[in-house]
């Protein structure tokens, strides 16, 4: 079935405020009228400034994390209510850097997923195996576990607001990319697993992005695979000239 390509840029902990605003302005101008779906994941402190730039454009504004609870005594946290208040409608959750650098558990990620969905936000849920897990033949098991744990309690109806980003950890920021055939195999597995968790309709409709050193030179072949519906892009998303060409692939 035809799914619209969904190209997302994860800016991580990068840019100054001026650079964030300038990049957002470039993207608004260059992506205007383009066919695919687009999102940028912006550092918390620049979300408000970037929200003013992308307002009314075809670019979805995402945070890179959110609190698992509503407003209250939670020092340092940022709630979905606060994000929505400034025009941020999407959140990237379970990114491998939060799983492996910060130590976020699948249980915590699931709480955040349910919280964001209950607040009517879109969620981009990242899953993916470490190199050792891949070498041990565990890639599918890891993805299956992260999917069932991350989506626990999420209804079929709510899945309309969920995108899955498959990001093999060994490919993130390393310059190593899964071959299109390897990536397609695991994307196909993920779609099949979602059919088991929900039903075939949900599986057919869910967008599954690939992430891991995606750039203009490898994106076309990756996006041509039947179960690769988009990309979550880190390094190449920090400049319009490297991000826009990926956004333009139909
Ligand atoms: C990411 O951060 O989600 C990512 C895939 O990074 P990069 O494109 O730099 O590998």
Description:
With 250 residues, this protein is an alpha/beta fold. The chain has one domain: TIM Barrel (Alpha-Beta Barrel). Helix content is 44%, strand content 15%. The protein is built from 11 helices and 8 strands. The protein has helices at 17-31, 44-54, 80-85, 96-102, 106-118, 131-135, 139-150, 180-197, 200-205, 216-223, 240-247, and strands spanning 6-10, 37-41, 59-63, 90-93, 122-127, 162-166, 207-210, 230-233. An 8-stranded parallel β-barrel has the order 1-2-3-4-5-6-7-8, surrounded by 7 helices. Helix 7 packs across helix 8 (180-197). The longest helix is centred in the C-terminal third of the chain and has 18 residues, at 180-197. It is globular and about 45 Å long. It binds phosphoenolpyruvate. Phosphoenolpyruvate is lined by residues 10, 167, 172-173, 211-214, 232-236. The site of phosphoenolpyruvate has 13 residues, from strand 8.
């Amino acid at each position: 079935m035809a799914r619209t390509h969904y190209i997302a840029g994860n800016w991580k902990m990068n840019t100054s405020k001026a650079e964030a605003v300038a990049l957002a302005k470039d993207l608004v101008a260059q992506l205007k009228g383009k066919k695919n779906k687009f999102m940028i994941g912006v550092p918390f402190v620049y979300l408000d400034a970037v929200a003013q730039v992308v307002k009314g454009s075809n670019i979805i504004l995402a945070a890179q994390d959110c609190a698992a609870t509503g407003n209250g005594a939670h020092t340092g946290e940022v709630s979905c209510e606060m994000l929505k208040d400034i025009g941020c409608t999407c959140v990237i959750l379970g990114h491998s850097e939060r799983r492996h650098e910060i130590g976020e558990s699948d249980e915590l990620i699931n709480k955040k997923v349910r919280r964001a969905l209950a607040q009517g936000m879109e969620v981009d849920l990242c899953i993916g195996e470490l190199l050792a897990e891949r070498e041990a033949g565990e890639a599918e098991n890891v993805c299956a576990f992260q999917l069932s744990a991350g989506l626990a309690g999420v209804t079929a109806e709510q899945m309309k607001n969920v995108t899955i980003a498959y990001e093999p950890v060994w490919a993130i920021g390393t310059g190593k990319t899964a071959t299109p055939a390897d990536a397609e195999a695991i994307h196909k597995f993920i779609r099949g697993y979602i059919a088991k968790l929900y039903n075939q309709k949900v599986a057919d409709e869910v967008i599954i992005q690939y992430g891991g050193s995606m750039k203009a030179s490898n994106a076309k072949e990756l996006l041509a695979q039947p179960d690769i519906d988009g990309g979550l892009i880190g390094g190449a998303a920090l400049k319009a000239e490297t991000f826009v060409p990926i956004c333009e692939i139909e």
